[in-house]
Amino acid sequence: MTIENYKQKKDFNVIGTNPIRHDGYDKVTGRAIYGADVKLPNLIWGEVVRSTIAHGKIKSIDVSEAEKMEGVFAVITHKDFEKNNKDNNVNLARDMQNILAKDKVLY
């Protein structure tokens, strides 16, 4: 590649200027719309519940109370990602190691 193919110094005229931010007013007034603000029909929100004990040993996970709560679509544990789970439509074979804690809390 020859030097002629590169832009010249005069072509770089943005540095040192104050470009107009067309979305600036909406952002500083709270009117800007972000991805988290979009509500689509039949949208399901997820929430992660973490252990209160770091590096704790997991004896069992009882999800029965959570499953009975109003609005709960599903409760997911490590059992939903086991390697031999034939009902799992997602292929996570290479990422199986620490998706969800099984025997020990992972932090």
Describe this structure in words.
The protein has a domain at 45-107. 10% of the residues lie in helices and 0% in strands. It is built from 2 helices and no strands. The protein has helices at residues 24-29, 64-68. It is elongated, with a radius of gyration of 25 Å. GO terms for molecular function: iron ion binding; oxidoreductase activity. This is Aldehyde oxidase/xanthine dehydrogenase a/b hammerhead domain-containing protein.
Rg calc = 25 Å
How many helices?
2
Instruction: List the secondary-structure elements in sequence, H or E.
Output: HH
Number of beta-strand segments: 0
Low-confidence stretches are none
Q: Which structural class matches the secondary elements?
A: little secondary structure
The proportion of residues in beta strands is under 5%
Separation, N- and C-terminal Cα atoms? 51 Å
Q: What's the average pLDDT?
A: 83
Estimated helix fraction: 10-25%
Major sheet: size, sense and barrel closure?
Answer: none
**What is the overall shape?**
elongated
In short:
With 107 residues, this protein is mostly loops.
Helix and strand arrangement:
Elements: H1 24-29, H2 64-68
